[in-house]
Every structure is written in C-alpha cells, then in structure tokens.
Amino acid sequence: MSETHEVFNQPPPLEGHNVFTADAVLSEAVRREGAAWAEGELRELGVLAGSPEAIAWGFQANENPPVLHTHDRYGHRSDTVAYHPAYHRLMEVAIAHGLHASPWADERPGAHVARAAKMIVWSQVDAGHTCPISMTYSVVPALRHQPDVAADWEPRVVSRRYDGTFAPAGRKDGVTFGMAMTEKQGGSDVRANTTRAEPTASDGEYLVTGHKWFCSAPMSDAFLVLAYAPGGLTCFLLPRWRPDGTVNAFRIQRLKDKLGDRSNASSEVEFAGAWARRVGEEGHGVRTIIEMVNHTRLDCVLGSTAHMRHGTAQAAHHAAHRQAFGRTLADQPLMGNVLADLAVESEAATVTALRLARAYDSDDEHERLLKRLATPVSKYWICKRGPVHAAEALECLGGNGFVEASGLPRLFRQSPLNGVWEGSGNVICLDVLRAMGRSPESVEAFFAELDGATGADARLDNAVARLRKELADLDDIEVRARRVVEAMALAFQGSLLVRHGDPAVADAFCASRLDGDAGRALGTLPPGVDVRGIVARHTPHV
C-alpha cells in the first residue's frame, strides 16, 4: 500500500544553531557596551540554547508544570513544590553560566552587560525558570543594606552550583532567592499590607505573621518580604529554614493557575510566626527593597527583548523556507514588510536593553541618573510591545503557529508577563512622573543621552523637540502619563538606533515610529524601506 502523500514545503526545525552568534544585533551590542570579554561564554551558551536537547527541556518543563504538596502521606505539613527534571536542568545551566549573580562575583566593567546578553540568549529556551534567576540576581543590592546579613548569604548567592534540594541553606553550596511584597487587599499599594513583624529578644530577628498574595518560586531558599515592624514598613529576609535546622513557618496555600510562566511556580503563602532577619532600618522597607525591584525591572526589559528576538527568528526562519505562489514567503512583498517590522522592533529592544544594562555597570553620575529614568521608561514600552509582537510572529506561521509544537503559543502566553511583573503599566508611568518630579537632574541626563544623536536624523530631532514641549506642560500630566512615557521610550530607542543600529533599521524606525509614516499594526512600514536587508540581517542561519 503506497503512502497517500509526502511531506514537502515545510521548514526544518529552528535548532542546531548558535542563538548568540546568529543574533547580529546582540553580538554587536555586547562588544559596543563593553562586554567583548564575555563572547566566549556567550557563544558556548548560544550553542546549548540552540541545541535540540535544551529546546526539549523548555517544552518538557512547560508541559509538566510544578505540583504542590502541602502535606505528606501522614498528615504533616510539607509545603513543598515538585518540579520536572527538565526544570532543574534549565536552572543548572542558568546558574552555571552566572545568570543569577555573576556581576556581584566579578564586578569588572561590562559585567551587567554580559549577564544581560546571557539572559536574552537563555530566556529563549524557557522564560519561566528565569524568574528565580532574576530575583536571585536582584537581591544582592538590597542585602547589602544589612552588611551582617549580606555576609551570611552573599557567598552562597554567587556560587555557580545549583542545589534544588529542600534543605537548610547552611548545608547547600548555592541558594536562590524569591520576593513577596503584595497582598490580596493591596496589590501594588504595598503600604496597605497587613503582615506584622514582632521583634524577638535577639537583635535584628523577628517573627512575621501574615500573608502574601504573590510569592513566585516558593522553593527558593529565602525571600525578601515586607511587613510592619514597630518602626513602620520594613524589609526582612525570611528563609525556608530556621537557624536551628527546623522548617520555618512558611505555608504554601496554593499555586497560581497562570496564563503563562507555566514552568515556574507562583504561590499564595502565609507566615505563622515565621523567623526572619531585618534588612535595612525599620520603616525603610520600600527604600530597601526598591533596590531589588529596579534590577528585576531591568530583567523585565531583557525578558521581553528575548521574546521579541525569538519570535522574529522563528518567523523569519519559517518564511525563508516556506513557499507560496511560486516563491518563498520572505520574498513576498507584504510578508517582507511584516518580517522587517518585527525585526525593527526586536533590534530597537535589543540596543535599548544592553545600553540600559551598561548603566548598571557604572557608578558615574550620568549613568546613575539615566538608569533611574530609563529603566521604567524602557520597561513600560518594551514590555507593552511584547504581546503585539508575539501575536504577529505567530501569525507569520499561519495555522502552524497556532499549534503548541511550534512553541509560539507558549511565547504568546508568556508575552504579557513582563508588563505586569514589578509594576503594571500605570504603576510604571506614575513612577516615571515621580522620578522626574523628585530628580529633575535625571531628566537632564535623559535628554543629554538623546542629544548624543542630535543632527543625525531630522525625524529624531523633531521627536525630541516635541518631547521637550510635552514635558514642559504639566497640565493633566498624570492623565497624559502613558503618552509621555511612550514618547520618551521611542525617542530613547531612536537615538540609540541612529547612533548604533543598522542604518536601514534606523531609517525604518524613524519613518514609522517617530515620523508616523506607518499604520497601527506591524507590517505597515512605508515604501522605500530596505525590507530585504533588514530581514536578511535578522534571519538565523542553521
């Protein structure tokens, strides 16, 4: 009996390539922003990220989500979460390559840039497990507000050995951290928290009682939490185990059933007199934990940037191999416009993400001020563009993109996460207004960065002039906050692309994002854009 059909005109799987070296934009940015010394390790990680084995780990970890065990078979509280072995393999690789803490262990110039590039490469395999990786990275600046606590924990944080066992931190070679701030009645308004911390007889030690509505990665070894101490809202380090080797009173009530981020456990927890150590002064909780929040906001930018690169690569790869009406999809003018627009968005995000990471590498006053404003501005806009980008990339594959095996449904479900995490859109925009009001010099630093591109493109110059006028008018500024922040983000991206991006990409960006010569959907770049050149630059070669 003969076969009814043969399979042809289907693209090969996008695997067996180097995810880092196939990304010309990322490779260029690593060198430009001061991390060329890390290229060897990035190439090594890129090979693994493109391997069939690692890609399978990402699928397996999402197809077998974490399982909560509140009690053991005899009725004792266990409060543990079981992960699929693929999740642990993903964690092992991330920690072995220093995604969780390398800039704190080796603070050479470019350390945060190198780590940012690694996050962009490895997040394309699976985004969920990078949540505890990000929180572990972000915790160190907050811990350093309490030197004795940092001295105990930082050596284990920076270790490149992953230990996923549920055991006291003192018996482990490496640890991971989580964070728990929000409560069900308060959400982003953390000052509405009801959790309380009572001091014990030992200095700096407290017993914490209360709940947290979102606690991600509950199997982490310790958490930064906010609770009201006698002196006000305070930051605490709350470990899963007490110093005496007994399990802390950390109760996992349930796991969240989430849209995306399926490989990672997010939970609701309660503290029943849980032992904790104070980090920072009483009453300075927000000021202390904001150090962690700022770094996790950087990682929101990196995560959405990784998603855009992955979506662009998948769409361009598919279109380069799939034929319709006698030529490849990539050679169809309208599909070429869509692919080029995806690529422009991806390149803009990448150059922004690594420029932002460089600001975290420096103690220079300009960089410090720029970081304060550019972090929330970039976080708002790049994360907002993520879902639009993911939906368009999926559509480039047609019905094949709607099928789970393509990986693009997972990308689409994941895409809104970073817009919600560490401050949804309104919270971030209000934070930008707050930063500008409290630190006018940060606005000066932001415009100084934009002025580095003055005269390079008239469309950019006009956009910056409009932005100055917008910021000079404070009437109804809160109502206009999203418009203002969007304009700031586009001007920032435009200035970076004009100075450092591919000329064709910079031209397309200025024409469509700054001059308004485009429609409201992706794939509406104006005539005259070098579509072929842009698509070729962003198409991975296997």
Describe, in plain words, how this protein is organized in 3D:
- This protein is an alpha+beta fold.
- It folds into two domains: 24-283, Butyryl-CoA Dehydrogenase, subunit A, domain 2 (Beta Barrel); 287-538, Butyryl-CoA Dehydrogenase, subunit A, domain 3, CATH 1.20.140.10.
- 51% of the residues lie in helices and 13% in strands.
- The chain has 19 helices and eleven strands.
- It has helices at 24-32, 39-49, 52-63, 85-96, 102-105, 111-123, 130-143, 147-157, 285-321, 333-359, 365-396, 408-414, 417-420, 425-438, 440-451, 458-472, 481-500, 503-514, 531-538; strands at 67-71, 77-82, 177-180, 196-199, 205-216, 222-229, 232-239, 250-255, 266-279, 323-324, 327-328.
- Strands 3, 4, 5, 6, 7, 8 and 9 form a seven-stranded mixed beta sheet that branches. The chain has a two-stranded antiparallel sheet with strand order 1-2. The chain has a two-stranded antiparallel ribbon with strand order 10-11.
- Strand 6 and strand 7 form a beta hairpin.
- Helix 11 runs antiparallel to helix 14 (425-438).
- The mean pLDDT is 96.
